[in-house]
Amino acid sequence: xxxxxxxxxxxxxxxxxxxxxxxxxxxxxxxxxxxxxxxxxxxxxxxxxxxxxxxxxxxxxxxxxxxxxxxxxxxxxxxxxxxxxxxxxxxxxxxxxxxxxxxxxxxxxxxxxxxxxxxxxxxxxxxxxxxxxxxxxxxxxxxxxxxxxxxxxxxxxxxxxxxxxxxxxxxxxxxxxxxxxxxxxxxxxxxxxxxxxxxxxxxxxxxxxxxxxxxxxxxxxxxxxxxxxxxxxxxxxxxxxxxxxxxxxxxxxxxxxxxxxxxxxxxxxxxxxxxxxxxxxxxxxxxxxxxxxxxxxxxxxxxxxxxxxxxxxxxxxxxxxxxxxxxxxxxxxxxxxxxxxxxxxxxxxxxxxxxxxxxxxxxxxxxxxxxxxxxxxxxxxxxxxxxxxx
Length: 390
Known about the structure:
Structural class: alpha/beta
Helix content: 25-40%
CATH superfamily of the largest domain: Alkaline Phosphatase, subunit A
CATH class of the largest domain: Alpha Beta
Strand order of the largest sheet: 10-9-11-1-12-13-2-14
Number of strands: 14
Oligomer: single chain
Radius of gyration: 21 Å
Strand content: 15-25%
Number of domains: 2
CATH topology of the largest domain: Alkaline Phosphatase, subunit A
């Protein structure tokens, strides 16, 4: 029987501030604590795996006998976004933060982008993704100019109405932006943000697409795929790694679709890694300060967890973790938050052990490779021997 690892990232599910959170203006952030106050919060199955037993989660009652290994990780990279978080899980520690643009992008970048696209540019400021449509959507429809905006993250976002600019054309404009944004202006992601509707009732569609900066060096995904094993990306994993090291991928329109695809892969015969990102926690709820919505989404995942556990084969290992925080109840901010991430590891060969707090998401990737028998020259140390049953 082939060894398989199912690595599920609950995008933005942080569990409390890190020691250096004040440097990111995130002192006091705690995504789990905020959503736990909602009446819709019910994580009874994650609790059984040890979520509430993790160091620092002293505001929720743990379980007496957790089913697997549990711990929390602090981030070594200088960032708190999706790209940096996933890269670190897979062995790349980013010592320098990716560039951000709190004053908007430089004139020379916008001018080159506008000339190459043959269209004007609106906004060019940090903006809420929903408010930018309210403020610039009508003007975009009338002029055909592209809405370009950013956030606290390293992103260049382009919004366009699907009836004005077809989705594939918008993707072409994103590719143009990606070709421009290199070197010192190498933002983590260029994001297509298509929308529909009429003024006063604009809404984003499901045709978002990320065009990521390619990882600067080999990751866990490269080492696993080059060893002849499978690396399956579910959700936006393929985008985050610019396709590097991925042998098969599928995009998903929601958390539910992501879970459904994971269940399908659990029933398939493959050897290697199935890497899943469930983005709704971050994109739909965290960034919109929707505490109840976030709690409902977590509860929905928790309800699906028994189906995932039932499908695990004898040598399968399930790892549930996150990539950063996005506390929906934190101040008035809609930005990501610098937090520890949880790590729950379950399988028939996995012990019940508390690993406490570990520094560096990269230990996860190193351990995955170790379990699969793949050599990987990456950051991090395997903790496999600490969690395997004798």
